[in-house]
Amino acid sequence: MVITAKELRGKPGQIIEQASRGTDIIITIRGKKMAKLIPYKGRAADKATNKQEDSIFGLWADRSDMASVEKFIRSKRKRRSL
User: Fold this and answer.
1) Core vs surface per residue 18-48: b (16+ CB within 10 A) or e
2) Residue 33 sits in the same domain as residue 47
3) Which of 15, 27, 44, 51 is the S-S candidate for 35 at Cβ 3.0 to 4.6 Å?
4) How far apart are CA 23 and CA 26, in angstroms?
5) What is the pLDDT of residue 8?
6) CA angle 19-24-29, nearest 5°?
7) Distance (Å, whole) CA 34 – CA 38
8) CA angle, 43 then 52 then 63, to 5°
9) Same domain? 33 vs 49
10) 9: domain range?
11) Rounded to two decimals, what is the model's pTM?
């Protein structure tokens, strides 16, 4: 389905309803394809998103040179000399 940006502004609810039913919608501006609205996959997409968000807490989990992140950080900090 191809729609214009003006149609999207005028009927957002109907267009989103079409996308939720599985229709890919291409949005054009002045006749040029600018964006694509695709249906959200639901629970599978939620799980994938949550997995990606949780992965930030293990940024250094796969690093073999950092058995203890705390010790690594302390070794990188310079000690103050008085």
Assistant:
1) bbeeeeebebbeeeeeeeebeeeeeeeeeee
2) no
3) 27
4) 10
5) 92
6) 100
7) 13
8) 150
9) no
10) 2-37
11) 0.49
Residue-wise pLDDT for 42-60, tens only, equals 655 555 555 555 555 566 6
What pLDDT score was predicted for residue 61? 65
Mean of pLDDT values over 59-81: 72
Sheet (strand 25-29) strand order:
2-4, 25-29, 32-37
Same domain, 32 and 47: no
Residues 47, 67, single domain; the answer is yes
- Of 76 and 9, which is predicted with more confidence? 9
Chain centre to alpha carbon of residue 64: 28
Q: What is the mean pLDDT of residues 51-80?
A: 68
**Structural domain total, the chain:** 2
The encoded tokens of residue 16 equal 């989103």
